[in-house]
Amino acid sequence: MVDVSYLETKARQIRRDLVTMIYQAKAGHIGGALSSADIMTVLYYSAMKVNSKNPKWEGRDRFILSKGHCVEPLYCILADKGFFPKDNLKTFSKFGSTLIGHPNNKNAGIEMNTGALGHGLPVAVGMALAAKMDKKDYRVFTIMGDGEQAEGSVWEAAMAGAHYKLDNIIAIVDRNKLQISGNTENVMGLEPLEDKWTSFGWNVISVDGNNVGKLQEVLLSLPRVKDKPTLVMAYTTKGKGISYMENQAKWHHGVLNEEQFKLALKELSD
Fold it and tell me: Please, what is the angle between helix 212-219 and helix 30-42, to 10°?
């Protein structure tokens, strides 16, 4: 188990890096990037088996960012871990850069291109099924948005995951309750969301998705039920860590001005 204070420090660093990257690019989806930063930090610095020196290592755990518009923390983490030079982050969303606004597998460490919501879980189910058929012990992780739960393909994949008894798949919902057009319950009501996943045959675990200590406890304890896929409902705050962004749907995406940028860095450094 990784020291919690290290993970907290690392998560703050990743937040500062992604805010800087978005400010310099004048583009990005900052609200969901901040809400999911703790989840990705715990995955990459504690829970998952990855190797930056051998990104295609057969025994690696697979990760798919289904909510691909929140790619910024993923790029920052991959750069920090040495999958590609950190200076590449300065090219984010610039003409000719491979670091585009959604995951791009031209970059080491990215398993698949994502962006159209509802595709990550179906592919993750396929990867997990392949591991079972090939008798491999790697696991497959995917992060979905809560607004993404309105996609029918999510529930088709949920049925398949339970049907094939894929206890090697861990799906995580970034449950910040906000999407581009407002509160998820107003746009397309999801509750009781945990009960729905349970009824589809998944082992459901709820956790504070912005508490790296609790996240690590949960993610290192999986799977808890043999032959059942796992769904982690990670309750988060959109814009986490920046006071004027927290729980504000307008920061689903947004461009920071200089004053906002300086304030964000100050709050993330305190």
Answer: 50
**DSSP class of 189:** -
Q: What is the CATH number of the domain that holds 236?
A: 3.40.50.970
Look up residue 183 and give its DSSP letter: E
Reported as a single tens digit per residue, the pLDDT across 150-174 is: 999 999 999 999 999 999 999 999 9
Q: What's the chain's Rg over C-alpha atoms?
A: 17
Q: What is each CA distance from 258 to 19, 23, 53, 239, in whole angstroms?
A: 12, 8, 37, 18
| Cα of 67 vs its chain's centroid, Å | 7
Question: Which ranges of the chain would DSSP assign to H, the alpha helix?
Answer: 4-25, 30-42, 72-80, 120-133, 152-163, 184-187, 193-199, 212-219, 258-269
Residues in the chain with pLDDT < 70? none
Span 192-228, pLDDT tens digits: 999 999 999 999 999 999 999 999 999 999 988 999 9
What pLDDT does residue 162 have?
98
Place of tokens 């769904």: 231
- Domain hosting 155: range is 4-269
What the block records as the tokens of 64 is 């798919």
Domain total of the chain? 1
pLDDT for position 153: 98
Q: Can you tell me whether residue 54 is helix, strand or coil?
A: coil
